[in-house]
Amino acid sequence: MKNKDLRWKLAQEYEHNWWKKREEIIGVLYYEHSANDIRDYLSTSNMLNSNTFILEIGSGAYGILTYLQESKNRFGIDPLETYYSSVPAFSNKRDKLVQYLTAKGESLPFDEKMFDLIILDNVLDHCENPSKVFEEIKRVIKQEGVIYFRQNTYNAYGKFMRGLMELFLVDKGHPFTFRKSNIKHLLAQNELTIIKAEKAGYFTTWRNELTSKSIKDKIKALLFITRDKVTYFIINSKK
Fold it and tell me: Any residues with CB less than 8 A from the CB of 58 and at least 6 apart, and which?
């Protein structure tokens, strides 16, 4: 087994334990709000309807797609799906029309050009091979299909510091750290185009972490290892 395989399995173990501690306290508002963001963006194009094919990569406990009920063709994949589906607190909140499958973003079990909308919400830094994930997205998305992509990003200093942390596995759940330029490079490699971008802002996040009750957040703020959460709507404009 290669070291990267071991690292990914460690990240998955961390993810499993993170959710297990929160089985009874995870709410749905985050997912509902995200679904509304997607709905608002697609409202002028009439893309979101009963015939829309939607895929969420890393759907987790129930994912955003469970709240996009306009579509009757929704698929969620996650390496930990066997666990998620076994937890009543999660499964009871799921829309029963969604098809949840155990799979990885690096190897999607779907035909080419199948999906109109793909959701990737804070997943890429958990993956084994981010480049392969985008290659697979390019393979299964239709021409003019839309990707809803959200990810924590860091400046050069933040990425350097997180690189040092990775040497000692301080953050076991996130094998990868991205700058915005890294994300844009991955998109350019696959001829995917950002058509709308939103961001939380470094300063806002730093201020929130500094005033947080969490000691971990305060340490990140004092070390200036601050993230900026970006949201991109991306289009597959080329074949």
Answer: 77, 78, 105, 120, 121, 122, 123, 126
* SS3 assignment, position 85: coil
Return the closest-CA partner of residue 205 out of 220, 190, 189.
220
CB 79 within 8 A of CB 15: no
pTM to 2 decimal places: 0.94
Tokens of 75: 């698929």
Contact 5, 128 (CB under 8 A): yes
- Classify domain 3-155+177-201+228-235 by CATH number: 3.40.50.150
Cα–Cα separations (whole angstroms), residue 35 to 51, 70, 225: 17, 11, 29
Number of Cβ within 10 Å of residue 108's Cβ equals 22
pLDDT at res. 79: 97
Predicted confidence (pLDDT) per residue in 178-221, tens digit: 999 999 999 999 999 999 999 999 999 999 999 999 898 898 89
